[in-house]
């Protein structure tokens, strides 16, 4: 038996798996305080017996069992938190950890290999609370020496946010995450409309309000430009879009359309995540299951 966790900025999903099959799935909102994390994880794992290993896909980057934030505005206590040790304290079994977008990239890569002609070079991009990514090159997941590979949300964009905000929670200015993440879209929409507006409501307003459509289109163009740069650097065969914003109605089509207008050679296929919101769980299930 393998227990898997997918820890994001707004939710934590858990799955009990055996032989690559999900037996049970649970989900709870992510907590905002460090002291609430252990009880949350314990409640998600409660009652599951026969667990031999825990696989964790987590936002942030992983080093030697600890997790760190790139954007400290998303999870403030992700500052070297000994997550592996915490989980070992809950359930005394081995714990395997990956960045959540890296895990999702692996899950999406494996899903496409079942076709018999899946890509050797794939990038997964999650547009969600934040923006993350994962890269598979020559059939191998690239995590990087420091666990940072794929963090495209924190590469500065030549696009600018529509509300003039330039300072990212990572400490840099002009990051893509400021423009096209769920948090970034909500911030810009709230400034535009003069009242609180989350990304879900923004998409629902797109067909009614030109301003809402402009924000979403602007985000799609910023994402497309970043992906074009990544393709020129890595020569990708396929780019997979996931996350709550990436899978929102019409977002993929907007990104595809914007990408087609960029004159890059040998353009890759841009597709939707096949594993949906559970790409991270799927990836860490296979990654942890295969690790010794």
From TrEMBL:
<protein>
    <submittedName>
        <fullName>N-acetylmannosamine kinase</fullName>
    </submittedName>
</protein>
<keyword id="KW-0808">Transferase</keyword>
<keyword id="KW-0418">Kinase</keyword>
<dbReference type="InterPro" id="IPR043129">
    <property type="entry name" value="ATPase_NBD"/>
</dbReference>
<dbReference type="InterPro" id="IPR000600">
    <property type="entry name" value="ROK"/>
</dbReference>
<dbReference type="InterPro" id="IPR049874">
    <property type="entry name" value="ROK_cs"/>
</dbReference>
<dbReference type="Pfam" id="PF00480">
    <property type="entry name" value="ROK"/>
</dbReference>
<dbReference type="GO" id="GO:0016301">
    <property type="term" value="F:kinase activity"/>
</dbReference>
